[in-house]
Fold this sequence. Notes:
Largest sheet: 12 strands, antiparallel, barrel
Helix content: under 10%
Shape: globular
Amino acid sequence: MRRSSILAFLxxxxxxTAAFAQDLPTFPTPPADEPSSWFHEPNVGYGPSRYVSMALxxxxxxxxxxxxxxxMPSGKFELRxxxxxxxxxxxxxxxRIDYEVLRSNVGxxxxxxxxxxxxLTIESASxxxxxxxxxxxxxxxTLGLAIGYRGGFARNENRIxxxxxxxxxxxxxxxxxxxxxEEAALLTLRDTITYGDEALPxxxxxxxxxxxxxxxxxxxSGPFDLGASLGLVKEFESIHLYAGGNVAWFGRENFFGLKxxxxxxxxxxxxxxxxxxxxxxxxxxxxxxxAAERLSDFSRPCHEIVAGFKWEPWRGxxxxxxxxxxxxxxxxxxxxxxxxxxxxxx
Length: 346
């Protein structure tokens, strides 16, 4: 999608979200001694969307993410469910790729102290055809934008066709490929080093271990993957600024003979506007390293924009929704996506 269409799309989305915020139902104001646990400490907010890259190769072994400082008092528990549904569509002389992937993530956290959390996450993703074609084409037609290479695909196709960099026959993967696409469990230890002050940001780090629950589409060389992240957040009145990144180590792996890189990293920058007591608008930029070896655009970083909101309709319940768009490296990023989630704290 061209840069002008991206800006038009995001502008319309953010204006629509702001209008939605004005129409939100009101709820009784909680007593002063019952503040939101998400704002229990200075500098932290609701945080960026819990979204990881859904580009073709990163999504084969997803789960590692940047864990930013969060406010969760000692002894509290958290249950989180998120869904990411994206369309991946790209066409060149080297590949023909058109499919949708739905990623489901369920996480349970326990605050060992005000600073330290232990989290277990189960995730599963399946590749399908789907219905996002109609959404994407309808958006382009409404704004009078060209559909480009999208006209070269059949509706709701589920196909990955790639020419290997070393030559030989094309790799062809279609709807007959066994599912799930990937399924894994992650155990993460998170620690907030400091919540900062008026001059310094809050800082947190995390360590994660990931193990596959099924073989999926990736051939592995070891039982576990390792990841680490560092995240910062600074509050400026109603604005929170986020910056951080993570790095993950995988064994020597391949996808139908295509070699995947042992090290993968991502970097995140986000801004949160705490528009109302229980509501924030959030815009996020996610850059993830190319995961395939010697495969043109798939070996270069993918770039995704995530824009949406988080809303706390009742104490201890947090709802998040966002749209996902590609930018810069269009061949190696989802064409369009929807992300949603709900979190319970008690």
